[in-house]
Automatic annotation (TrEMBL), chains A, B, C:
Pfam families: Gly_transporter
Regions crossing the membrane: 6-23, 30-47, 59-78, 90-109, 115-136, 148-167, 173-190
Keywords: Cell membrane, Membrane, Transmembrane, Transmembrane helix
Protein name: Putative membrane protein YeiH
UniProt lineage: Bacteria, Bacillati, Actinomycetota, Actinomycetes, Pseudonocardiales
Similarity section: Belongs to the UPF0126 family.
InterPro entries: Gly_transporter
Keyword Membrane in annotation: yes
Region forming the signal peptide: none
Source species: Saccharothrix saharensis
Subcellular compartments: Cell membrane
Amino acid sequence: MLLDALELVGIAAFAASGAVAAVRARLDVFGVIVLALTTALGGGIIRDVLLGVHPPAALVSWPYLAVAGVTGLVVFWFHPTVAKLRRAVLLLDAIGLGLFVTAGTTTALGLGAPPYAACLVGMTTGIGGGALRDVLLREIPLVLRREIYAVAALCGAVVVAFGDYLGLPAVPVTLVGSVVIVGLRLLALWRRWNAPVARKLDG
Amino acid sequence: MLLDALELVGIAAFAASGAVAAVRARLDVFGVIVLALTTALGGGIIRDVLLGVHPPAALVSWPYLAVAGVTGLVVFWFHPTVAKLRRAVLLLDAIGLGLFVTAGTTTALGLGAPPYAACLVGMTTGIGGGALRDVLLREIPLVLRREIYAVAALCGAVVVAFGDYLGLPAVPVTLVGSVVIVGLRLLALWRRWNAPVARKLDG
Amino acid sequence: MLLDALELVGIAAFAASGAVAAVRARLDVFGVIVLALTTALGGGIIRDVLLGVHPPAALVSWPYLAVAGVTGLVVFWFHPTVAKLRRAVLLLDAIGLGLFVTAGTTTALGLGAPPYAACLVGMTTGIGGGALRDVLLREIPLVLRREIYAVAALCGAVVVAFGDYLGLPAVPVTLVGSVVIVGLRLLALWRRWNAPVARKLDG
């Protein structure tokens, strides 16, 4: 119940990040909605395609579609206001990341994937939508370049897989995994942590 | 029979649009053929991956492959002529869009997808190939930026889903849906309709 | 046994090419590892998604993941040295291409795909990872622009499909197909063969 409500919050946050990026790229209203849908639902669709869930849950669940689409429209109309809410959007995005990654990992484990595969699938669920957003807008995916994003996702996925390995109950494990992700992500934003970059090539 | 022939026309039109874009991007002959195949067959492959049809029909059907590949070769050799046929290519592309979207929606409904999911899958079938083409050539997908393209696709998909809901026979419904798409698309091109773009951001 | 070992060599070579490209694009250490994994495993994942193998073998096989990830890390630390090994990387990449294409074609045939579909799937297995790498780094895929790469892959795939059609034993056919690919690829590099490009458009 609470997790379901939080998941819709995460979808709205992901949709908002896609829509804001689309508005900045001067897409029309339809492009903005498509980007909102793609960013919010893309990770889950990739997960279901990898795991063989047909058709993908994100396409069959109308609340997901409605929340993502309406968020896209709202951003289109009120985007100067949304642009000012940058901190709120980052917070919601961290919550969405936490829930998507842990839900993806749990789904993969439930379908019999080995733990390391489940972690990869869970991470992909969380970061796939944003990567699609950036590829469609012709950017190198942010997740590959900035701050501790995918690492936070991976840590949470490992927590869920380890909890499952120990036979702990699923709901608290999912919550702890989500909190780890949200916490690491906010810490990284707050302290401006970045992963190291290789020394520059001379040639 | 007529629908099958029209579908091959649509594939040739999509293949031509991919090949023309590839020639403009200075790809070699093989790249031109790959772009022709990807643009013509990409939407159907995405549809089959989402719906769990393995292997995708587009890879198993040699007439599709042959038509798309030969179209790519023809464009490579005669592209200055093809470039002059811009209006004919746009007309064929509209017909291809109409047939791909309605066929995709019908396929999804037949596999038991709910109506809104079938509409999304149908739309994706129609616009997916062109989106792949633009991503491979490092463009922001045209469908997100220009004219009434995806909206026309969505309207036709809704017609098909609604007709199916009312229990109307499939062939006339598919035809009406295709006519709606082709009509909207040509109207949009003729009247230079575009969807609205958000006001410019100051910051 | 020998084929398995060679396959790991191919994965390491593909991972190295992804990691070198990521270092050049100034990604952080995590982005370098993700690019290494994507380049090395992407082709196989696309193959399994097309053929309906869930979850994809590349995600379930820990040696693949370990070799690709460690290669990414090694390149991150020693990339000036790796950059000097360009010839060795190209040789390993050709071996990887040969093994991936023939393995992909064999897998598709084993799952009942018709020969031309199996050739396309095999070719996609070999060139898909590199195409993903280039799309993520916002490049037009190299395979579409340069040298005899996809053509070599296609020739090897046809050898495997034809051998299968004749009922020849799988292991020698796979070896011959791989040798054809590696040979064509090295010849193309050595003689600087390129496929023809269309005459320039005036307009």
